[in-house]
Prior knowledge:
The chain is mainly alpha-helical. The protein has one domain (2-288). The protein has 13 helices and no strands. Helix 2 runs parallel beside helix 10 (210-237) and helix 5 (101-113) crosses helix 7 (145-166). The longest helix is centred in the last third of the chain and has 28 residues, at 210-237.
Amino acid sequence: MRSQTVRDLPLLAVAVVWGSSFLVLKQVVTQETVLGTLVLRFGIAVPLLAVFAWRGLRRLSAREWLGGASLGLILASIFLMETYGAIHTTATNAGLIVSLTMVFTPLAESALRRTALPRAFLGAAFMSVVGVALLTGGGFHAPRSGDFLILGSALVRTVHVLAMSRAKWIKGTDALSLTWIQLGTAAVVFALVSPFVGSSPLAVARSYGAADWAGLLYLTLLCTLFAFLVQMWAVRTTSPSRVSLLLGTEPLWAAVFGTALGGDRLGALALLGGLLVLAGTEWGRRASAPPAATAAPVDPVDPVDPADRAPELV
């Protein structure tokens, strides 16, 4: 029992840092510094991850490199939408809305395979949608632009998951190497676009104070590198259901940090909406999961075989 608890703590820590990431983004990034900040963040993460990935990268074929790069383009759009979105909505809303990926992914997979989902899952999906409507509008005002961007990122995350699970050219590709290629591709995209949008990475770096650098390193070292390495370790040492259960608490932590430290204030209807999102995504995750006896190891964030895709990075 004690050893299981010790194994659970790193996963719970990942859920906590992911839940806090939207609040940290709001404190570090502005509309003008999104691209410059992303270049700095990935400029630190990619070389550090290369220390662990370089051996696997040497064994990849040109087809696998191109496949990983195409997925990296999708990943770059996810980071852009989430970062811009976090600026224009509350940390609580961002964390709860992005969790809808756990509902969107089985829906999309079911449509592609033309298979029916359990009625329980459809009920959970409806509950989540109603929850988002209440959460983002609160019953009194129009949704923020950031809410739509975060919702869009959840949809693109679904595309990313499905692309990795169904792309034949990366079947069996080392997950660590595949993730490095995707992050490297995203870094190149940000570096190419940044001269034309907002402040340059150099200007952003010069404008940073100690608190800004601390926030950036937090996003890079904990929310990206630490989270990735823990996922890689967890899917090999503990049960998929336990991994999913612990990391599934991310939106709850986002709400905790947003309300306790970010000053988010939810009205009665918005609070009800947040609770419906939490309940709906958890119900949907459980309803769409395969039976424990036959379940294949899955990624901690999304219900896809880890051999088919690399872990999600926040």
